[in-house]
Write a structure and sequence with these properties.
By secondary structure, the chain is of the alpha+beta class. Helix content is 66%, strand content 15%. The chain has helices spanning 3-28, 52-78; strands at 30-35, 45-50. The longest helix has 27 residues, at 52-78.
Length: 80
C-alpha cells in the first residue's frame, strides 16, 4: 500500500469516526422536562429541551465528516 493510500484511508477512518460522533452528539442533545399546568387541574405536560452546544458540535462533526469523506475518496481514487 502506497503512502497516498494510507493517508486516504486515514482520512476515511476519521470521517467515519466524526460521523459517529455527530450522531451520538445529536442524540444526546435532547432531554425531556415536565412543564407545570397552565390552569389548575390540568395534567402535567412534557417538553423537549435541546442543548445548543451539543447541536452545534453535531453540525460541526457532520461537516468535518463530509469534507474528510470527499478528500479521502479523491485521494484514494487519485492514488490508483
Amino acid at each position: 500500500m502506497s503512502g497516498a493510500r494510507i493517508v486516504a484511508a486515514g482520512a476515511l477512518v476519521v470521517a467515519v469516526v466524526a460521523a459517529v460522533g455527530s450522531v451520538v452528539s445529536w442524540l444526546a442533545a435532547s432531554s425531556v422536562a415536565d412543564v407545570a399546568p397552565v390552569i389548575p387541574g390540568e395534567p402535567v405536560k412534557t417538553s423537549v429541551l435541546y442543548d445548543p452546544s451539543l447541536i452545534a458540535l453535531s453540525l460541526l462533526l457532520a461537516t468535518l465528516a463530509g469534507v474528510l469523506a470527499v478528500v479521502g475518496t479523491a485521494r484514494w481514487r487519485r492514488a490508483k
